[in-house]
Design a protein that fits this description.
The chain is an alpha+beta fold. The protein has 14 helices and 18 strands. The chain binds one RNA strand through helix 3 and helix 4.
Length: 420
RNA sequence: GGUGGCGUGUCUGAGCGGCCUAAAGAGCACGCCUCGAAAGCGUGUGUGGGGGAAACUUCACCGUGGGUUCAAAUCCCACCGCCACCGCCA
């Protein structure tokens, strides 16, 4: 939720933010108008209410005829108060609804434009030259079959498209990645967390996933639970309605993630790049607003460290305004080189949500001058399927065996994955 | 799933229609005392919104949402959560 005061003080910046997101700038003016009306109605109600409080008090001590006369006028006043309160409530609701519709203000430094208008910040590593190695790279589906590591056919049989089984070395690879990720995170000072993956609507709404992103969320109708698409949701809602004393707080959440992937028919249908269910280690940080930019850079650095450890070529992009989630004011993606696609594909992503989520979730910290909303940030440490894709494809040998990155060997116990 | 009990400020906890402007204690902060500390004594002690240049003022908040009433922490309804016991269960 954006700060009403900021909007009132600088409506121009808010309108511009809406514009570069490709969202409706007139919402800002509607919000300001609604808020003005709301404040007028609030004054009206409060004046009447103060009168009523006073009158009610005198009823208590009055006797006989005097009391009856007071009751008479008090009754009249009560209906007025009720009416004024109804008006106030309606306007408050209207203001609130508008406020919830507006996405976070974009960082002015973020590139402007749509999905294709990202800016490449750096490229790290060099894509492997397979012609020099003398063979045609196989894609991860093929390698997965040869190694008996990934079974998409049976995944589809049992659960439908975009489902898969990780078997044998595939399953072991997941455990190794998780263990490496968690142990690195703990070394970096993160508190490891295994959160619930079914959450109530308030948690979804508070993190900003029930806006435009709602169609990508699984919902259990009967029990009104949502399946989280990322542990960012339970990690953000973890401190809902709390006042934190010590900042920053850093959590590394490990959970399954569920995504409907509505509107992606025909996109990435082969393999496990885009799936309905996967496991992920997510970093989540609560910090002071003034530290948010620095924390964002740290998150990006931890993501880069992980990819470096996987020995995978990748690039870092500064995601353009129109492609940001509604909670984010800036987002960096790390994209790994996928040899068989001849392109970089997103494997991790980190967003600075400033005070947007904490305002919705009512999470504050003790500042010198009172309790204030804090900043939240999130970043992927490792999303299993995509990392497996990157590892299998980049580190494959001609016979379908795969060299294990040195960092993973202690966790996997072998140097090479070999065909069964 | 069933039955019973309970949700009050930072915490413990009283209040069960109008002297609630929420008792009391603890904690915390400041002051006095002290070489210093403890004890003791005194003072203060929430959040959010509105108005105001400010002093200040006003409204809301006793799990959440409705309702009854001139007036609700207090009465009624629904929901959520916690605890105990019973049933079922990895």
């Amino acid at each position: 939720m954006i700060d009403l005061k900021v909007v009132r003080e600088n409506p121009e910046a808010a309108r511009r933010s809406q514009e570069v997101r490709g969202e409706d700038p007139s919402l800002i003016d509607a919000l300001i108008a609604a808020d003005d009306a709301r404040r007028l109605a609030l004054i009206e109600f409060e004046t009447l209410r103060a009168e009523q409080n006073q009158l009610s008090k005198s009823v208590g001590s009055a006797k006989g005829d005097e009391r009856n006369a007071l009751l008479e006028s008090a009754k009249e006043l009560a209906t007025k108060v009720k009416a004024a309160d109804a008006v106030r409530a309606e306007l408050e609701e209207k203001t609130n609804a508008l406020q919830l519709q507006i996405s976070n203000l974009i960082d002015p430094d973020a590139p402007v434009g749509g999905e294709a208008d990202f800016v490449v910040l750096e490229e790290i590593g060099t894509p492997r030259d397979f012609t020099k190695d003398g063979f045609e790279p196989k894609d991860h589906v093929e390698i997965g079959k040869i190694l008996k590591a990934i079974d998409t056919e049976r995944g589809a049989k049992v659960s439908g498209s975009r489902f898969y089984y990780l078997t044998g070395p595939g399953a072991l690879l997941e455990f190794a990645l998780i263990n490496f990720a968690i142990s690195s995170a703990v070394k970096a000072g993160f508190i490891p967390v295994i959160p619930p993956v079914l959450v109530k609507p308030a948690a979804m709404e508070g993190t900003g996933f029930l806006g435009q992103a709602a169609e990508n969320v699984f919902h259990l109708e009967e029990d009104d639970f949502y399946l989280v698409g990322t542990s960012e949701v339970p990690l953000a809602a973890y401190h809902r309605d709390e006042v934190l004393e010590e900042l920053p707080v850093r959590y590394a959440g490990y959970s399954s993630c569920f995504r409907r992937e509505a509107g992606t028919y025909g996109k990435d249908t082969r393999g496990i790049i885009r799936v309905h269910q996967f496991d992920k280690v997510e970093m989540f940080i609560y910090c002071k607003p003034e530290d948010a930019k620095a924390e964002h850079q740290r998150l990006l650095q931890w993501e880069k460290d992980f990819l470096n450890a996987m020995e995978i070529p990748y690039r870092v992009i500064d995601v353009a305004s129109g492609d940001l989630g509604s909670s984010a004011n800036r987002k960096f993606d790390c994209e790994a080189w996928i040899p068989t696609q001849g392109t970089y594909r997103e494997v991790t992503s980190t967003s600075n949500c400033t005070e947007f989520q904490s305002r919705r979730l009512n999470i504050r910290y003790k500042a010198e001058d009172g309790t204030k909303p804090l900043a939240t940030l999130n970043g992927t440490l490792v999303a299993i399927p995509r990392m497996i894709v990157a590892i299998l494809e980049n580190h494959q040998n001609e016979d379908g065996s795969v060299n294990v990155p040195a960092a993973l060997r202690p966790f996997l116990g072998v140097d090479t994955l070999v065909p069964a």
